[in-house]
Amino acid sequence: MRRRVSPLVSKRLKKSPKARKNNIRISIYAAIVVVSIVFCAGTIFLIRSNLVRLHSVVVSGNEIVKREAIEEIISESRRDSLFWIIPKDNVVLFSRSKLKTKIQERLSTIAHTEVSFTDFYTLEVKVREHKPTYLWCASLLREKCYFMNESGFIFNEAAGFSEGVLFTYYGLVDTAAPIGKTYLPVEKFIELNKFTESLRLLKIVPVGLNVLEQDDYEIHLSSGSTILFSGREDFLQTFANLETIITEQLRSNKNFLAEVDYIDVRFVSKAFLKLK
């Protein structure tokens, strides 16, 4: 038969050392919870206040890209929040690397971006744009042209740009979406440019280059003539062949460079030429 515990015994049990320890432990846990809640609430309140949030943005280095386009991306990043409660537009939580990535991905004209804080309230964004070194056009008709940098990277439309100011490349790139594309692998593009520029030593002025089939190229000259050569052959050898042909022709005809229609040096062992 189950024994009943008298009220006196029950009261004594509540006042036992073990019970008192449990009560103290519960009180400590409760105090920790209360302090944590107060601390978190205070921190959130502080972060959401204007005391620690960014107040101004400084943008520099842009010439082609409008300042408003960069500021729009910055404003979007400043609206990011943690758990939809804590804003990130402060020195502690703002992601500089994320902003840099957004700017690089959305603005193809920008080659490099630096993001830093000048103080607790000011964000500084420095950009360096691609230099318009060459042009790329969809066709020889020059209906739509784009700027290229020194590595052959196409980064911005060149609407209404004057013909003949920059050396122009044609073909090879998808005409539907050329921005962000590279004309050739960088090393090959640089070698091709060196060869093209070397032609000036022969007193001819190259103004454009078009890619033909099977790695063959044609260079357009300011005189209206063209030079056909192969990317499969050594450029130094191709230059030597051209130099020999031009030198020999000028001995008998001083107006050869103005009268020639094309010179074809795609084959090492032989060359072809045609007068206008």
Overview of the structural elements:
This protein is α/β, with parallel strands linked by helices. Among the domains are: 56-129, membrane protein fhac (Ubiquitin-like (UB roll)), CATH 3.10.20; 184-275, 3-Layer(aba) Sandwich (Rossmann fold). It has 7 helices and 14 strands. It has a 9-stranded mixed β-sheet. The chain has a 3-stranded mixed β-sheet with strand order 1-5-4, covered by helices on one side. Strands 2-3 form a two-stranded antiparallel sheet. Strand 10 and strand 11 form a beta hairpin. Helix 3 crosses helix 4. It is elongated and about 120 Å long. The chain starts with 6 loop residues before the first helix and ends with a strand.
Features:
276 residues; alpha/beta; 7 helices; 26% strand; single chain; Ubiquitin-like (UB roll); Rossmann fold
Topology:
Layout: H1 7-14, H2 17-48, E1 56-60, H3 67-78, E2 81-82, E3 86-87, H4 96-106, E4 110-119, E5 122-129, E6 134-137, E7 145-148, E8 154-157, E9 168-170, H5 186-198, E10 206-211, E11 216-221, E12 226-230, H6 235-252, H7 256-259, E13 260-267, E14 270-275
Parallel strand pairs: 1-5, 6-9, 9-10, 12-13
Antiparallel strand pairs: 2-3, 4-5, 6-7, 7-8, 10-11, 11-12, 13-14
